[in-house]
Design brief:
About 90% of the residues lie in helices and about 0% in strands. By secondary structure, the chain is mostly helical. Helix 2 runs antiparallel to helix 3 (about 35-50), helix 4 (about 55-70) packs antiparallel against helix 5 (about 75-90) and helix 6 (about 95-110) runs antiparallel to helix 7.
Length: about 180
Amino acid sequence: AQQAYALALKYHSRWIGATLMTLGYVHNRLNNKNLSIEYFKEGIASYKMNFGNSRYLSKGTLAMAAVYNQYHQVDSAIYFAHIALNAAQEVPYLKGVGMTAKFLSGIYDSLHIIDSAFLYQKLYTNINDSLNDRAKIASFENETFLEQVRENENAQALQKAEQQREQNIQYALIALGIIIFISVF
């Protein structure tokens, strides 16, 4: 991760934010809370600068909220989760909206703020249903397309067989004509 960050800096890559986020994940796993949060903050700033509101910003901010939640800093977790939700809604990035809504629902449920937990759970359910419907539609369209391709291949095979049959008949008639011509001659 350090080498990727060094290369990103060297080549002025727009993916510096991704390498910073990776370093944030690494330090979170190493239980270096402060360093992890600093890398996440720098990564989010880089995402904002390079991509504006985007799915990257949403994912990164939600990851930072999860780190704060892991260390029982619930207010900060809620704050960054709302930033992630707003970024995902603005893009629109439905999967990000769903993940963030589920995260917020869990936090509010643990705090016994039932109305907010219900609100975000409902949002998560609606988004999840919408994504499942889209997946079903895409699957149906894919199956329909594949069926059309198979039908076209079958039609082409039938057409080729018909042409082959006509050609065989022509050869047979030519051969018969030659035999009759030779017999008459």
